[in-house]
Each structure stands twice: as structure tokens, then as C-alpha cells.
Amino acid sequence: MEAPIVIQPSFVATSVLVSVKKIALEPAPTLYAPSRSLSVRWVAQELSPRTVNIAERSLRISSNAEEDWYFDADLEVKNTGCVAITHIQVRIDMQDEAGKTMDTFDLYAVSDGDPSILPGSVRQFRAVHITRGRKPTSYSASILDIK
Length: 147
What we know:
Elements lengths: L35 E2 L2 E3 L9 E12 L4 E12 L8 E8 L5 E10 L11 E11 L5 E9 L1
Parallel strand pairs: 2-8
Antiparallel strand pairs: 1-3, 3-4, 4-7, 5-6, 5-8
């Protein structure tokens, strides 16, 4: 007579190592300085019901020894309309001391890949550009396209 075959179940031990890192967070300021509202020229067609306000949070204009001027503006766009906005293309015209346009650049305040700006919501964006020659002393903004 043959000995009976005994099958013992095998156990697989698994373990999970969880690592937690605590990141020091700096709280957001409770109050911001009020933004300076910009006068915006509308170039885009068929704007209604999409309307926005653009405001300046801060502006820095600096230079290096080679007469390059760095234009760096923190701006915000507020959806003042009644529908969500998925796309805003803005043109910045930089002016010299005489108010003459010396350089122009385009940027997207909201691109197609960004989350929509809901009615009443505000989104920050940054306008950065390098220009050569005269120092820009002011600028204006135009809406080129909005969806």
C-alpha cells in the first residue's frame, strides 16, 4: 500500500512599505494687495456672452548690462460673463516714454488644455518678455481670441 499524498497549501507572504514625508507648507497670505485693473482692447469677434476683466497684480521691469529689458507682469483674468471660458489669447503692447509701441508679444492667459474659468472665477497668469533697446515704461493688453 502506498503512502497517501498530502498536499499542504502554500502561503505567500506579502508586505507593503509605506513612506510618508511631511512637506512644510507656507500658508497663503490672507490678504492680497488689490490688483490694478487694466483697460483692455477687444480684437476678438463675437465676444458675447464671454466677458473678462484683466488686472495687474505686479510688474517688474529690469535690465542687464547688454541693454536687454526684462518685462515680467503677474496678471489675473476674471470671468465676468455667464458662461465658462476655455481659451483666452492676449496681446501685450509695450510702450516707451513717448507712448509709442516698441514691442509686442502674444500669450495665452488660458489655453485649451487648462481647466475652464467658471463665471465669477479668477485665474492668474504671467506675461514675460525680453526686449532690446529702449526701456518699456507702460503696456496695454488686447484680447485676440476667446472661447
